[in-house]
Design goal:
The structure is a single chain. By secondary structure, the chain is α/β, with parallel strands linked by helices. It folds into 2 domains: 7-259 and 464-482, 3-Layer(aba) Sandwich (Aldehyde Dehydrogenase, Chain A, domain 1); 263-452, 3-Layer(aba) Sandwich (Aldehyde Dehydrogenase, Chain A, domain 2), CATH 3.40.309.10. It contains 15 helices and 23 strands. Helix 4 runs parallel beside helix 5 (165-176). The termini are far apart.
Length: 489
């Protein structure tokens, strides 16, 4: 695999059993830059046979890796972390070109990945089982142990919006726990992840961490249905998550799903309005709004709404749209033209039904592709409009005026999603009520939406099942086993 930072010359391969390989058919496909339409790299177009090869390699490696001492796994993962860190600049530029996000955001994503890998590497030696006292057998002492055993072959399927970070949430805990893994990145953003897996394989034993490139309908289907796979971790759309759960459930695979979101942000009358407006701008328009954790609905107390909206508009006006390689770019292109069209249709639907565009609302021309869209704020949008009830995966934000915290929470909960949420207030009673009553996996108080590696992260309702991040995440990569000792005294 080429290590050049000139993305147009990259000829990528899959990594199976520690070797860089093409697909069994020899077919390849191009990855294009969303900002320019230019070819970033050529990648193998894998199929079911390639996926089977990767699973077989992972299964063969599991016997040794699962018995490798925790201290050795920790050491090897720390070495992988350091090696990837040495290539951070190269990887950030590659991520910018294949995904479209500004280089500064790509660098932040790499930092988040490295932090997570470091966290789970260190956690490998900190895991504990438990001893449980049991009722005595007749004239005998008895006690139980709960052992934590690695599950086996795991599969990690990551999306295109944060391909690096959301692959790291799968690789880190899987390998730290003693499992092996097969990674399947999104077809449009495989390059940086493939390069990272190549670097990891310079450090860890063959077959422990594999990557297969190719369509979800073939490669993905084989991975989630293969009987040798015991664990599937997926991040992506809710409809795809439902399909994965159905297929994987036939073999009782362990499944975690981190799916879509429509995160509400509540701004109370006692909030720090300047900071809240800044964070609303960042929280909605970071990565061009293409984030499951993005703020997608904004509820502001009526008494401060005019003041807050004025501050927010002034901040949005400063967001420069452009190619990710430009230093002053704050909003890059949407990942595909289809994505841009969907966001535009959601905005048009809102306006058609009475919504008012406060700023933005149009495609941005003058670039080499049609993927660019203005950062957009709307008001007077019906709560049953598409942009409210669907997940809006782009730079558009509807704003609603509410009378109090109770109305804000009631409206915020009127969604099929429940991933993140936030409340901005100096009032502990309001914050406490929001923390307990908002139907979401996470609630931030006076804080920006961010997935900390130290805290469990996941959603409720159609935002998913299970948790990533935190010590809790690694538990999904173990099978607890009870052992009873009796009559040993």
């Amino acid at each position: 695999m080429s290590t050049a930072t000139e993305t147009k010359t990259l000829q990528l391969k899959m990594i199976i059993n520690g070797e860089a390989v093409d697909s069994v058919t020899g077919e390849r496909q191009d990855v294009k830059d969303p900002a320019t339409g230019e070819v970033v790299a050529s990648i193998p177009k894998g199929n079911r046979e390639d996926a089977k090869r990767a699973v077989d390699a992972a299964e063969a490696a599991f016997a040794t890796w699962s018995e490798t001492g925790a201290e050795e796994r920790e050491k090897l993962l720390f070495k992988a972390h350091d090696l990837i860190h040495e290539h951070s600049d190269e990887l950030a530029l590659l991520l910018c070109h294949e995904q479209g996000k500004p280089v500064s955001e790509a660098s932040t994503e790499l930092e988040h990945f490295l932090h997570g890998l470091n966290f789970y590497a260190g956690l490998a030696t900190k895991l504990r089982g438990s001893q449980v006292p049991l009722p005595n057998f007749p004239n005998k002492a008895a006690y139980g142990l709960v052992l934590k055993r690695p599950i086996g072959v795991c599969v990690g399927i990551s999306p295109w919006n944060f391909p690096v970070t959301l692959t790291g949430t799968k690789i880190g805990p899987a390998l730290a726990a003693g499992n092996t893994i097969v990674i399947k990145p999104a077809g449009s953003t495989p390059c940086t992840v493939a390069r990272i897996v190549e670097l990891i394989n310079q450090v860890i034993p063959k077959g422990v961490c594999n990557i297969v490139l190719g369509p979800g309908g073939t490669v993905g289907e084989e991975l989630i249905s293969n009987p040798k796979v015991r664990r599937v971790a997926f991040t992506g759309a809710s409809d795809t998550g439902k399909h994965i759960m159905e297929v994987a459930g036939r073999d009782f695979k362990r499944v975690t799903l981190e799916l879509g979101g429509s995160d509400p942000m509540i701004v109370c009358d006692d909030a720090d309005l300047d900071r809240a407006a800044t964070m609303a701008s960042v929280g909605r328009f970071y990565n061009c709004g293409q984030a499951c954790l993005a703020i997608k609905r904004l509820y502001v107390f009526e008494s401060v709404a005019d003041q807050f909206i004025e501050k927010l508009i002034s901040k949005v006006k400063k967001l420069k749209v452009g190619e990710g390689t430009a230093k002053d770019t704050r909003i890059g292109p949407l990942h595909t033209d289809a994505q841009r069209q969907e966001v535009q249709e959601q905005v048009e639907d809102a306006v058609k039904n009475g919504g008012k565009v406060l700023i933005g609302g149009k495609q941005v021309s003058g670039f080499k592709t049609t993927h660019f869209y203005e950062p957009t704020l709307l008001e007077n949008v019906p709560h049953d409009a598409r942009i409210v009830q669907e997940e809006c995966f782009g730079p558009a934000l509807p704003i609603f005026r509410v009378k109090d915290i109770d109305q804000a929470i009631e409206m915020a909960n009127q969604s099929i999603y429940g991933l993140g949420s936030s409340v901005w207030t100096r009032d502990l009673a309001k914050a406490n009520k929001a923390a307990f009553k908002l139907q979401a996996g996470v609630t931030w108080v006076n804080s920006l939406h961010y997935g900390y590696d130290e805290l469990p992260f996941g959603g409720v309702k159609q935002s998913g099942i299970g948790r990533e991040h935190g010590p809790e995440a690694i538990e999904y990569y173990f099978e607890p086993k009870s052992v009873v000792f009796a009559g040993l005294m």
